[in-house]
Amino acid sequence: MKKTVWTFGLISGGIVSLLMIVATAFQDAIGFDKGEIIGYTTMVLSFLLIFFGVRSYRDNAVGGRLSFGRAFVVGSLIALISSVCYVATWEVIYFKMSPDFSAKYAAHMVEKARASGASQAAIDTKIAEMQKFQAMYSNPLMNAAITFMEPLPVGLVIALVSAGILRRKGDRDPTTGLARATD
Q: How far apart are CA 122 and CA 159, in angstroms?
């Protein structure tokens, strides 16, 4: 299981990290609102490797028989490794390549509140909220924890779906010794 989990987790993590770097390079042209859509789309695309990893484990490591629970564990571990790659990449981008990200994001959110016709009190509240966010986000541990909560839930949902699709209980065919699917 280790080889499958590490292989597919690192490939998925490499894909999501590469796509994050590319999207960050074009952040000013993309904008924050579209950037969020692009970000979650790239996560889902990279997490498709969870399905292929669970299928590979089922077909190659356990002879075609795989319980839902074991499939979910394999998928979750792949999602975890990929999410760690995502967080590590973001930490480098945020603290080394784009240290002004939180200031730009805060300005965007305040401007978005103004454009929506919010009252001055609501805008002042948003400004205070964004100042707290910037202070919290400047702490590397808090930054990592917040960032970790972006991809992991998506990966766990895909692991859950993959486990449901790929689970297969079976017994061995006495003539060939191969697994027979029973469901």
A: 40
Place of tokens 């999501």: 16
Q: If we measure between CA atoms, which residue out of 182, 173, 168, 180 comes closest to residue 58?
A: 168
- What single letter denotes the amino acid at residue 3? K
Comparing C-alpha atoms, which of 170, 173, 151, 27 is closest to residue 84?
151
CA–CA dist 153, 76 (Å, integer): 10
Across the range 28-40, mean pLDDT stands at: 86
Q: Hunting for tokens 């790659």 — which residue is that?
A: 85
Q: What is the DSSP string of 23-39?
A: HHHTHHHH-HHHHHHHH
Question: Above 80 in pLDDT, residue 182?
Answer: no
| Local structure of residue 150 (DSSP, 8 states) | T
Tell me the C-alpha distance between 156 and 6, whole Å.
16
Q: Is 68 exposed, middle or buried (0-12, 13-18, 19+ CB in 10 A)?
A: middle
Alpha helices for 93-176 (secondary structure H): 101-115, 120-137, 140-148, 151-166
What's the whole-number mean pLDDT along residues 42-53?
Answer: 95
